């Protein structure tokens, strides 16, 4: 019997709309070039809000200002050739970005950023890194919004409690 506790891979994503277009990244993956919301993994000692600001900056070279939590999403991804079976727990935020920061490069693996309409997103669904890309955009358009403080981060995240 396997005694290892199952843990989902926790990620964050930024859903950014400007005049009916959404900011996406095109990234290199083992499955080829794919589209994704600016997104990435939560690092140890980092709140989801800090992570989404960092990831959006790294992947778009733009400062991201979160305005609301869209929701928590789960999806499972299997890559049999690599014996990978990963369940992702995504915290998606909506907000705004500024202009690209001069001299700032995109994260490794990100080829470019681009703005896409909902119709373009739907037409390219086969090239989405996850089914959550479109789902998060549709939830944004439906007006789903939770307050940023819906995710409580205890101070022990930064200063772990120590038991004697």
TrEMBL record:
Top-rank taxon: Bacteria
UniProt GO molecular function: nucleoside diphosphate phosphatase activity; ribonucleoside triphosphate phosphatase activity; thiamine diphosphate phosphatase activity
Keywords linked to the UniProt accession: Hydrolase, Magnesium
Pfam families: NUDIX
Domain Nudix hydrolase, chain residue ranges per copy: 5-138
Keyword Membrane: no
EC identifiers of the protein: 3.6.1.-
Cofactors, names only: Mg(2+)
Self-association state and partner proteins as the record states: Monomer.
Family to which this protein belongs: Belongs to the Nudix hydrolase family. NudJ subfamily.
Protein's UniProt name: Phosphatase NudJ
Organism: Paucibacter sediminis
Gene this chain is encoded by: nudJ
């Amino acid at each position: 019997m396997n005694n290892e506790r199952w843990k989902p891979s926790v990620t964050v994503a930024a859903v950014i709309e400007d005049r009916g277009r959404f900011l996406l990244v095109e990234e290199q993956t083992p499955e080829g070039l794919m589209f994704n919301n600016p997104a990435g993994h939560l690092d140890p000692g980092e709140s989801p809000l800090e992570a989404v600001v960092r990831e959006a900056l790294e992947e778009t070279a733009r400062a991201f200002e979160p305005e609301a939590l869209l929701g928590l999403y789960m999806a499972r991804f299997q890559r049999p050739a690599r014996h990978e079976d990963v369940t992702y727990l995504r915290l998606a935020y909506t907000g705004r970005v500024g202009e690209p920061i001069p001299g700032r490069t995109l994260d490794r693996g990100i080829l470019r950023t681009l703005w896409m309409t909902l119709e373009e997103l739907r037409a390219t669904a086969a090239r989405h890194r996850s089914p959550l890309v479109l789902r998060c955009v549709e939830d944004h358009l439906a007006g789903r919004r939770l307050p940023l403080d819906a995710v409580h981060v205890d101070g022990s995240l930064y200063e772990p409690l120590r038991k004697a």
